[in-house]
């Protein structure tokens, strides 16, 4: 559970205590402990995501006229717009990038970013853990220790 008063070490080396979530978020974003991918790192993150989650069947259907492929008695049809939405794609890519950037750190995510067992299993294979909930169904951030990485998806 998040304590009512949060303390964060700011980039300038001073500490600040605030009960205001907006103030806390702004202070966190300005701290040395906060990493946000920039425009130059996003393409490589997306490429890594495609490498891990691509399917030869999907590629074959995409190359077929009308996104339709018939094999024997089975016809596969694929929507022209398919795959992860932008937010999920970015969140999963950030998780992969976090593991690459911090190979020896414990990485926590606040929640699953997609209801896709394969994606979630792959993240778990990378050693990415999820912040658990306590008996009151509140997230228990006490599991994250100093030096751990916590990925905060936008949702």
Automatic annotation (TrEMBL):
Pathway: Isoprenoid biosynthesis; isopentenyl diphosphate biosynthesis via DXP pathway; isopentenyl diphosphate from 1-deoxy-D-xylulose 5-phosphate: step 6/6; Isoprenoid biosynthesis; dimethylallyl diphosphate biosynthesis; dimethylallyl diphosphate from (2E)-4-hydroxy-3-methylbutenyl diphosphate: step 1/1. Its EC number is 1.17.7.4. Transmembrane segments: none annotated. Belongs to the IspH family. One of its GO terms (molecular function) is 4-hydroxy-3-methylbut-2-enyl diphosphate reductase activity. Coiled coil: none annotated. This is 4-hydroxy-3-methylbut-2-enyl diphosphate reductase. The keyword Iron applies. Its cofactor is [4Fe-4S] cluster. It comes from Perkinsus olseni (Perkinsus atlanticus). The keyword Protein biosynthesis does not apply. It comes from the Eukaryota.
